[in-house]
Amino acid sequence: LQLVESGGGLVQPGGSLRLACAFSGFTFNTHAVGWFRQAPGKEHEGLSCISSTDSSTYYADSVKGRFTVSVDSAKNTVYLQMNNLKPEDTAVYYCAAESTEPTWFTVQAMCIMAGAIRPRGQGTQVTVSS
């Protein structure tokens, strides 16, 4: 199972970026994919998790209305469109996958578990600064 992120960079406050997470070794039919971030000195934060099993999507309050997750199943890629970026959004962003089979699984639970979710990609840096 492998996930590779791309699309990070430096952007001014109020700007936009789109991150991509290309995955292999599993299908979106059996696994959900989530976007997470970790800023220096802070805990892992689950931003958005999406599953095709029940067509469910979860967004953290910190990004709701600004970030949008989408999936291109044909390309095995999950995207995170980030708009109206703020300096506090500066962090390493990464994607991770989780099987939807466990009884505890919901997209909300997956996002809340954040740093415990494996496998995950190496991450991409997003810096929001003027």
Would you give an account of this structure?
The protein has 130 residues and is mainly β. 5% of the residues lie in helices and 47% in strands. The chain has 1 helix and 10 strands; from the N terminus they run E-E-E-E-E-E-E-E-E-H-E. It has one helix at 107-113, and strands at residues 2-6, 9-11, 17-24, 31-38, 45-51, 56-59, 67-72, 77-82, 91-99, 124-128. The strands form 2 sheets. A 6-stranded mixed β-sheet has the order 2-10-9-4-5-6. Strand 4 and strand 5 (45-51) form a beta hairpin. The mean pLDDT is 95.
In short:
With 130 residues, the protein is mainly beta. It is 5% helix and 47% strand.
Physical arrangement of strands within the biggest beta sheet: 2-10-9-4-5-6
Element order: H for helix, E for strand: EEEEEEEEEHE
Query: Total helix count?
Result: 1
**Unreliable spans:** none
| DSSP helix fraction | under 10%
Provide keyphrases for this structure.
six-stranded mixed β-sheet; mainly beta; single chain
Protein topology:
Elements: E1 2-6, E2 9-11, E3 17-24, E4 31-38, E5 45-51, E6 56-59, E7 67-72, E8 77-82, E9 91-99, H1 107-113, E10 124-128
Parallel strand pairs: 2-10
Antiparallel strand pairs: 1-3, 3-8, 4-5, 4-9, 5-6, 7-8, 9-10
